[in-house]
Amino acid sequence: MIYQGNAITVDRDARGVATLTFDLKDESVNKLSTAVVGELGEAVEAIRGASDLEGLILASAKEAFIVGADITEFHGMFEKDEAEILSMLERVHGIFNAIEDLPFPTVTALNGLALGGGCEVALTTDFRVMSDAAQLGLPETKLGILPGWGGCVRLPRLIGADNAIEWIAGGTQNKADEALRMGAVDAVVPGESLMDAARDLLERARRGELDHSARRAEKAGPLGLDAIEQMMAFETAKGYVAGKAGPHYPAPIEAIKVIQKGAGERRDRAQAIEAKAFAKLARTDVCFNLVGLFLNDQLVKKKGGQYEKQARPVEQAAVLGAGIMGGGIAYQSAAKGTPILMKDIKDEAVELGLKEARKLFAKQVERGKLSTEQMAERLTNIRPTLSYGDFGHVDLAVEAVVENPKVKGAVLAETEAAVGEDAILASNTSTISITRLAESLQRPENFCGMHFFNPVHRMPLVEVIRGEKTGDAAVAATVAYARRMGKTPIVVNDCPGFLVNRVLFPYFGGFSLLMEQGADFRRVDKVMESFGWPMGPAYLLDVVGLDTAVHAGEVMAEGFPERMGSLGGDGERSVIQRMFDADRLGQKNARGFYAYEEDRKGKPKKVVDEDAIALVEQAAGERREFGDEEIVARMMVPLCLEAVRCLEDGIVGSPAEADMALIYGIGFPPFRGGALRYIDAQGVDAFVELADRLAEELGPLYAPTDKLREMARAGERFYA
Prior knowledge:
Elements: E1 3-4, E2 8-12, E3 17-22, H1 34-49, E4 55-60, H2 74-78, H3 82-100, E5 106-110, E6 114-115, H4 117-124, E7 127-131, E8 135-137, H5 151-159, H6 161-170, E9 173-175, H7 176-182, E10 187-189, H8 194-206, H9 212-220, H10 227-245, H11 251-262, H12 267-282, H13 285-310, E11 317-320, H14 324-335, E12 340-343, H15 347-366, H16 372-379, E13 382-385, E14 396-399, H17 405-418, E15 424-427, H18 434-437, E16 447-452, E17 461-466, H19 472-484, E18 488-493, H20 500-516, H21 521-531, H22 537-544, H23 546-559, H24 561-564, H25 575-581, E19 595-598, E20 604-607, H26 610-619, H27 628-648, H28 655-666, H29 675-682, H30 684-698, H31 706-714
Parallel strand pairs: 3-4, 4-5, 5-7, 6-8, 7-10, 11-12, 11-14, 12-13, 14-15, 15-16, 17-18
Antiparallel strand pairs: 1-2, 2-3, 8-9, 16-17, 19-20
Helix pairs in contact: 1-3, 3-12, 5-6, 6-10, 6-11, 10-11, 11-12, 13-19, 13-28, 14-15, 20-27, 21-27, 23-25, 27-29, 27-30, 29-30, 30-31
C-alpha cells in the first residue's frame, strides 16, 4: 500500500504498476470535494516518492468514475474574492500537472460517468481506456462557469479545437464511441475487460510501442494553428455559439475565448488564462443562480426518489381522452417502456391520439434517436380502445378529457368502476379542484391530480396534486410513474390553479393592467424576452390559447377575488376577454395578439396583425410609454408575490420546489434562478419597498404579505 485515505487508495503490484483508486466512503458516487482534492495531492506525492514504479492506472471502485466537483461547495467557494479562487485553481493545477509529469506512463480506466473535474483528471494521464457504457464530458458551462482544472487546455490539444469547442460550449455528455472517434480516449472495451485493457495499454507504453512522451509534448505545447485556421475554428464558433446560448449565458463564449487565447501558449501559461476566466465567471450572478438551480434540481429529484421508494410499481397505465394531450401522454409512457391503454368514445378521437404518438415517434426516427424497428416496437406499447374491457389490469389511469368538471367527474366515476380497488386515478386538469373532482369517487384516497404541461413530450414538469382526501399511496405511485416517464414531478397541495398556473396568472394580470393603461403589447413582449423569458406575455397567451386563459382566469378570480378578481374579465376593459370575444384564440385559430402563418417546417410563425393592435388600443385609455424597468417590475412583482403566497400557504413544500416548478413549467429564466431566488437577489427589503410603491397605484395584486414584510425587517432570505 502506497497511500490510504478516506476517498483514495494507491496500491502497487509485483510488476511495479501503481493503481490509484477513487472510492469515496459513505457516498454512492465519487466527487472531487476540497477534501478529496487534498487527498489526491497527498496520493500523488506518495507516488512520486515511491521507488521502482513503472506505471500508474487511475481507476474507480464505484459505478461511475468521478461525476465532477462537489457542487455543494460552489456557493461558499465562489463567494471568496478572485485571488482566493485563483489560489485554489493553482493548487489543483499543480496536482494535475504532477500526475501528467510522472516519470512513467499513465492510463485512466473510465468505467462510468467521468464529468467535469472527473473528465479533467482523466485528461492528465497519457492514455484513456473507456468502458462501452461510460460517458465523458465537461458540462461546466451549464453552471455558468468553464472547465477550470485544465479542461480548456488539454482537451483541444487532444481532439482539436473545433471538437473541443463543441464539447465544452455545449456541455455535452459523450458516449464511448463518440469519445473514441474524437480521440479523447484510446480504446473502448466491455466493462469486464476494462482493467485488463488499461494494463495492456500501460505495458505497450512501457515497451515503447506507444509513445507516451510524444502524447505529453502534444498536450503541453501550443495548439499549432495558423492565423487562418484560428479564424475558422474560433470566430465561426463564436457566432454560432452566441446565437445558441443567447445574451444571458456568457460562459460558452468565454470558454471559446479561453481556448483561443491559450492556443499559442504552452501548458502553464494557457492554464493561467483559463484560471483567470474561471474566477471571473465564478463570481457572476448567472453562475450563482445556475449553481443554485442545480442544487434545487438535486433536492427535487431526491424528494421524488423518496416517494418512489414507497410506491407500488405501475406496470400497466391508461389514459382517458385521446386528443393531442392524451396522445402525448400515451407517447411519453410508451416511449419510456410502460404499456398504456388509450381510451376514447369515438374512433376518430382514438385515431387522432395515435396519429400524435406516431408523429412524435417518427420525429425520433428522423433525428436518429430510434430505428424504425424500435419505433414499431414502442408503438405496440399503446393499445387503443373504445371500452373499459381491459381496465381491470390497469395500475394507474390518467383522465385527460375536456376541462369541464361535470365531464371529468363522470369519466372518473366510470373509470373507478372499471379498475381494481387498488388502482390509482389521476386527473390531468390545469385548474379544477382535485378535492371537488374527488366528490364523484367512492375511493377518493386513490385519486390525485397529474398535471402535464403542453407539449407533453417537451415540458419536463408534472404537478402531482394532493386533494384533501388523497392518500400517500396515490401520491407515491403517481410520482413514481411520472419519473418513469422521464418527467420531474413536484408534489403540491390543492388550490385554484395549483402552483404553476396560480403563479402565472398574476403575471397575466400585470400584463392586462399595462394594456389598460396604454402600453404597447409588442414592446412589453420585447422587454420581457430581453429579461430572459422564452416568449413575452402576449405571445405566451397566444400559445396557451385565449379561451383557456379566460377560463383559467375565471377560476383564479373566483378563488382569489380580492387580488385576482379582474382576471375574470368584465367584458369592457380586459384585453384578454376582448380577444376571446372577438374569436381571437391565439395559435389554435391563427388569430390572437398576433396572426400566425406556417413557416417552412410547418410551425406557426407570428406576424404583426393590425386588427389585434386596434383591438388592444380600444381596451386602453390613451397610449402611454413605459420604461423597461417599470415594465419588468409591473410584470414580475405579482408573479413573485404569488410564489411567496404559495410557499406561505403550504401549497408547495420549499423554495427550491417552487422555483424549479416555474422554471420547468413556464420557462422562468433559468439564469435568474426562480421567483424566490429573484427576490433574494433584489433583497427582500428592496422588493417589499418596490411592491408597496406599486400597490399604492395598482392595488392588492402588488401588495406584499405580512410574513414577507417580517422577513424584510429581519434581513432574512428564502435561501440561506
